[in-house]
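Researcher: Let's try something more involved. This one mixes different molecule types, so please make sure each is placed in the same coordinate frame as the others.
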Amino acid sequence: MLLKAYAELPPRKRIGIIAIILGISAAVIGNPCNTTQTKVNIKEVALKSEKDVDGIKVNELAGWIIEGKMDYRLADLRNESSFSEYNIPSSENIQIGSLTKSDLKRNDKIILYSENDITAAQGWFILKAADYKSVCMLKGGLEAWKNEIVFPQCSCGDNPSEIQKQNHQKKEEVAKFFGGQMETGSSSTKVAKKELPKLKAPAKVNLKRTRSKKKREGC
Amino acid sequence: MTAPFFKFGYFNDEVSLIVAFVIGIFFGFVLERGGFGSGRMLAAQFYFTDMRVFKVMFTAIVTAMFGLFYLTWIGYLDLSLVYMSDTYLVPQVVGGLILGVGFVIGGYCPGTSGVAIATGRIDAILYALGGFFGIFVFGELFPWIEEFFVSTHMGNINIPTLLGIDYGIVLLLVLLMAIAGFTGAEWAEKIMANKKKED
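Model: All components are placed in one shared frame. Result:
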């Protein structure tokens, strides 16, 4: 009966009725970008975890910072006070609970870190579930950053080879760049808690983000 | 696959230009076939004698709005990556008024003048030349008007975030506005047609 009456209406009125139904449905749906419930491709997540492709090493990140490469977003998932005490240059503080509400874009290259891998892994899973395309974790987190970049251990013996000497010098320069130093002391100093340098951006790092350069778009 | 494709890197800058070119050709073709290549037709809406432009444009807005909303809802589109320019309230209102006055006088908007040029209309060619002259004058005067150009910056805002209401509610309100607009346009057309008969 209703269908027959609908079929007899002129086309513009039929389109109008469909539009009103879709409009009312949209009002009921409310916000289309509600991402609190999503479907996860567990096979893809498992494969990525197995192949370990979504992790970057601390020395790789240090190299990017020194080079001034800024085509990524580095998210520090720790709390505000820990972040203000010390953070990796170019990072921004985003709490794990507000990851999907932050201004991180789905096409951004995102690197997550925390004290350790666990929180970063949780963040990685949240972003992957919310369909962020390029998310990776800083392997070993801030702990690895501290031990391998800011206060690296000297691995040369008594008679270091030329390559070892070069590596040592490189590590020392990198550590100095990030306000740290090479750890060469005895076992007692190794055990002692290392104080991270006071928070300041290294002088040579160009913190200007290339991604912030907006492309002219639109009509 | 999630849209916008370019933003997710499914194709590069060069391919994006080809895609834009193909879409532009189709867009121009549809505009021309819809009668938008005629300055008389376009200017007629300002005299309420033929509201086709208003109806087509509002239909396009509503269709795009539905498309964006439902494609986002099913997870095919990331709305946050769809480009939206920043709001500079006063300069944009002034710019809109200048465009409107130019539209009434010349009978075209920049896009439709391109369509009309494709069909060889001389008035459209002159209109476009005027447009280029305007761009040149604007460029030369820019240092003096730059302060005004960037004034009343409100950031990247839209109605749902500004008013704190859901996208769906805004969609319904715009739809109701369109229906009211279409009804009003048809009513105005009828009145003007009767007036013409009387004359």
